[in-house]
Design a protein that fits this description.
heterodimer, A: mainly beta, four-stranded antiparallel β-sheet, 12 strands, globular, B: mainly beta, seven-stranded mixed β-sheet, 11 strands
Chain lengths: ~110, ~120
């Protein structure tokens, strides 16, 4: 079975500082990888995804994530965060040919002024 | 194009009552997924449905929980004889087809509180 590990439950950071949210997964088969963001009392919104091709994927609001197959990681990074980035971020994995998602336990990003 | 809709947004039930959670997928989507999020945890897959078919219910508890996605109308997640441990946020997601972009679009969730 799949498992997704987000080691950091909370990440406090000052505005305009860089941030990295870590995600590791375990799987014996090929996977698709996703990062979702959840604002308070809202549903999940897709931030970015890796299906195939370039291992570096970017979102429209400055986040990027790199798929590292050898380390089974898909860490999320942003070079300069804003207050509005304060939210909870979930890493998710789906085995190719299946649509069942396995989620990590989430990382709460708290951006301070 | 409206997103995935779930209602009610908040639901309070006493122990032993039934809870019915509704999910209307995005227009044109024929696949629905239900997830449960316990406090301080990530989402856990419960069930995957297509119209009139349950495709994968490997995450559903064996008793008291059932799900359906009829030909007409929303998908329903039904919890009978609720217990305090059922208190959680229940999210529905939809997708247009099984082998498309593998992306799932999530609704705002229903927060169930069992008193």
């Amino acid at each position: 079975a799949q498992s997704v590990t987000q080691l950091d439950s909370q990440v406090p950071v000052f505005e305009e500082a860089p941030v990295e949210l870590r995600c590791n997964y375990s799987s014996s088969v090929s996977v698709y990888l996703f990062w979702y963001v959840q604002y308070p009392n809202q549903g999940l919104q897709l931030l970015l995804k890796y299906l195939s091709g370039s291992t570096l994927v970017e979102s429209i609001n400055g986040f990027e994530a790199e798929f590292n197959k050898s380390q089974t990681s898909f860490h999320l990074r942003k070079p300069s965060v804003h207050i509005s980035d304060t939210a909870e971020y979930f890493c998710a994995v789906s085995e190719t040919h299946f649509n069942k998602f396995y989620f990590g336990s989430g990382t709460k990003l708290n951006v301070k002024p | 194009n409206a997103g995935v809709m779930q209602n009610p947004r908040h639901l309070v039930r006493r122990r032993g009552q039934e809870a019915r959670l509704r999910c209307s997928p995005m227009k044109g989507h024929s696949h629905v997924y239900w997830y449960r999020q316990l406090p301080e945890e990530g989402l856990k897959f419960m069930v995957y449905l297509q119209k009139e078919n349950i495709i994968d219910e490997s995450g559903m508890p064996k008793e008291r929980f059932s799900a359906e996605f009829p030909k007409e109308g929303p998908s329903i997640l039904r919890i009978q004889q609720v217990v305090r441990g059922d208190s959680a946020a229940y999210f529905c997601a939809s997708s247009p087809a099984r082998d498309s972009s593998y992306e799932q679009y999530f609704g705002p969730g229903t927060r169930l509180t069992v008193t």
